[in-house]
Amino acid sequence: MTHDPLAQPHDWSAAGFSTRAIHAGQDPDPRTGAVVTPIHQVSTYKQDGVGGLRDGYEYSRSANPTRDALQEALAAVEGGAAAFAFASGLAAEDALLRSVLRPGDHVVVPDDAYGGTYRLIARVLGPWGIDHTPVDLSDPDAVLAAIQPGRTKAIWVETPTNPLLGIADIAAIATHAQSHGAVLVVDNTFATPYLQQPLALGADAVVHSTTKYVGGHSDVVGGAVVVADGAQLPAGMEGPTGTTSLRDAVGFLQNASGAVAGPFDAWLTLRGLKTLAVRMDRHVANAEAVARFLVDHPGVTEVLWPGLPEHPGHEVAARQMRGFGGMVAFRTGSADSAVAVCAATHVFTLAESLGGVESLIEHPGRMTHGSVAGTALEVPDDLVRLSVGIEDVEDLLAALALGVWGLAVLKVIVVPVAIALLLTVLLSPLVHTLQRWLRLPRAAASGLAVVLLIALVAGLLTLAGQSIVNGVTELWDQASDGVTKLVDWLSEGPLHLGTADIDQWITQLQDAAASSADQIASGALSVGVTVGHVAAGTLIALFCTLFFLIDGRGIWAWLVGLLPRGSRERVHQAGRRGWVTLGAYTRTQILVAGVDAIGIGAGAAILQLPLAMPLAVLVFFGSFIPFVGAIVTGAIAVLVALVTQGWVSALIMLGIVLLVQQLEGHVLQPFLMGHAVSLHPVAVLLVVTSGSLVAGIVGALFAVPIAAVVNTVVLYLHGHDKFPQLGTHDHVPIRAKGHPVVDRAIAAAAEAESEADAARHEHGPARGTTAGDPPVGP
Questions:
Q1: What is the pLDDT of residues 313-329, one digit of tens each?
Q2: Catalytic site includes residue 187
Q3: Is 485 a catalytic residue?
Q4: Residue 204 among the catalytic residues
Q5: Is the dihedral of CA 711, 714, 719, 724 positive or negative?
Q6: What are the two backbone dihedrals, phi and then psi, of residue 292, each rounded to the nearest 5 degrees?
Q7: Marked catalytic residue, from 20, 112, 114, 381
Q8: Is the pTM of this model over 0.85?
Q9: Which residue in the list 68, 187, 248, 336 is annotated as catalytic?
Q10: Hey, CA dihedral for 76, 78, 80, 86, is it positive or negative?
């Protein structure tokens, strides 16, 4: 039986979603019966005589059977009249925007639009004469207020938005667009045609980055435009084909601009579309589990997912979506912690893009939305975006638990314990002195040392606080006068800026501050959490410091006792040398910080700058971050001089800062650190940079001492002893199963061995032995 090659394709319009995705535009090949659309990897087509085209195919930029199959399938699943496949999502957006906009026109955009879309509109179409207004799309009245009658030709909607997952009421905005003759475009990438049907809700066109959920496997880049049946260009506009049809205009731009999807890309996208429904069901289910897990986690300050009842757009999303999507965003309280979470999960891959079967994690502020930094569309810097994949949900939750738990541990436990170690190595000499001079027990001496530390810090902070209270009024008055002088200089100086230009800058600053009000408010809401973490961390640091001072040797003995017996002694000796290195670093860094603080603070006092004492305290603490800390805090001192006393004082203050930096860099750091730390300045710079990238300010603070200790320990374990004067006679009694009799026996043996070692060092090797021989019994 032969197949009729002229048989008409089946009409799948009445079928269900998955049936349309699998079959629309993909009838079996009429010649071979192949059930999968072939890849027509061809650029041109044979003509039957001049102008005798076969099914209209002449050149693959204009038409290609594989791309046509994809376009028909996309139109079917979106419920549109026609679809157009492009080489990328932005290529699709560009063609659509140029179809509906002309120089002088205006477009309304989301106030948290995808960074690539904003870049296209603001920086590519902007110079072409296109204006735009960012607006909160969750408020239809705000959208209406942003429309400029006669100029607004398009309203660009993302719902859910990228990356804050805001929800727009498509039907309500469609009413406003229609009443003003504007085209309503909905970016349906996040929701997908399976979860949301914008054309049925009144949209004129839908755009997709088919790279994402439609393709679904992170192996193809593409985009698409789907237009509604009967969709027209904005009121009063005629397209390049001489009609007002939006379909005609987009089709013309697709061919004229040429950014079409290639045959293989179209085939991969078509393959992904077939499984979209089943994948989205799994994406949504996993996203819900992830969102609910994050809501209950103390390390997360806010979770953004439309499926949560507390989400402001939950009711609208429930009304216009089949499911709430596979994207989840959450906030951690700080940029450093957000970056740390991104680096700590192992199932979630750190990468841009979204919608693949694999889970991805990213920091929008530094990745996908870096192009909108400093604009009204800037996203919170503590935001983390998840593209939740279709892996086993237990593995996803475990990965997040590890990453976010690790963040909480870093905040509340690891950092305070690290600070306690620094304080312990700093206070240990004081404890020994108190024991020797005052004949105090070790516990009492340790407690007194901690109390003295608290008193010192409290005194410095009180003194700085009083200086701030006493000097803030003077600083404000002088700063106001300095700003006035700066404005006068800008207008009357060599720049000759007009008053209107300066007023415009001030207005832009005010607008930027106003647009950031939500972020500021959100940050204020997280202050309580941050204060709580600081308070808890302070208590942990002080508690650990006290007990490290009292029983640090016992704690170290327990840790070493966990190791195999044969490696305990070498690890113990390496640890002793690492401790000496840490002590040398800490004491030297305090001395360096003190010199920096005295130098810059004295310079500020001589210049009679307000807040000289707080500036000195700030420089002291900032100097614990090598290179960077003192420079940043010194810059603050220069800024204070500039706004309060003018350019001359600022230049003098800058000279003082540079002088102090030269003293630190060329005298204090090289000579005082010396042999104890022995890290090359380049190594210090690299480890500080690496530490800041991994853990922000905390990483920069601890990078150098960690590197110095690791350097000393590794060298010793490889046979190079930086501190031979320490010897190896000090042994820690290792507990064996906690048995008191065994403990006493081990302690006695260790004490006898220590005495024997001391005797050998004092009298030299016994006759007939060498220094390397094992000890000789009595």
A1: 999 999 999 999 999 99
A2: yes
A3: no
A4: no
A5: positive
A6: -70, -30
A7: 114
A8: no
A9: 187
A10: negative
